[in-house]
Amino acid sequence: MNVRINRGLCSVAAAAAVSGVLAGAVPASAAGTPRFLAPAELPPHSSSAWTAGPVTSGQPDPLPMCVGEALPSISVHRVYRTDYDTGALQVTVVERSEQRAKDFAALLRKDLDGCANKVMRENPDVTAEQKYYGKLNVEEGAHVYGVHTESTGGSSDINMFSVGRDGTTVTLVQWGQMGDFANAQVADFKATTVKAVNKLY
User: How many CA atoms lie within 13 A of 140 on its CB side?
Assistant: First the structure.
């Protein structure tokens, strides 16, 4: 499932715990703007180059599935596309302290840990399965997940997610396309995640 398809699977319930975690977040402009991935740093597509939109303040629209509710209005994001049904997203949040950044990263990971069950609960016509691909040794660490969804209408989509942190800055990277776990570019996505976290500051 890519960014476009995710419109149908965005969560709609509010997360009550989010407000306390995000109360200490600050706009990126107040602490320096982190660098974002360049299109060429995304997992390579066999038939198309990546293009990127501008780095934009605020929540992405549509919100990414499972983690969208946790993203504060002060998020900064960038959307990436190919000429085919493949898309990607990077969202970065700068917190006031390392502890708040740790808490926010933990919240995103908790949402991803329960992603498949949440998708199926909110979308009865969808079957979802997920995998955890481990922790990457970059800065304060990054964690990688995969989620496969299949609808009764026949669509089958694979998403990769990662959550990484460098000091007070947390970044979320999402990549998706049609397919299943066999089509997940795990090694390439891990390399992209390392680049994303290394570029934060």
Answer: 18
The CATH architecture annotation of domain 5-198 reads: 3-Layer(aba) Sandwich (3.40)
Tokens describing residue 119: 């998708």
> In whole angstroms, how far apart are CA 191 and each of 3, 19, 165?
20, 32, 15
Reply yes or no: is the peptide bond before residue 60 cis, omega within 30 of 0. no
Torsion angle defined by CA atoms of residues 26, 29, 34 and 40, in that order, rounded to the nearest 10 degrees: 130
Name the band, by pLDDT with cuts 50, 70 and 90, for residue 28.
very low
Six token digits for residue 11 = 């969560």
Nearest one of 11, 1, 8 to 115, comparing CA atoms: 11
Give me the residue spans of the domains in the chain: 5-198
Name the residue among 179, 174, 176, 150 with its Cα closest to residue 164: 174
Report pTM.
0.84
Residue range 41-74, pLDDT digits in tens: 999 999 999 999 999 999 999 999 999 999 998 8
Q: Which of 152, 160, 200 is nearest to 180 (CA)?
A: 160
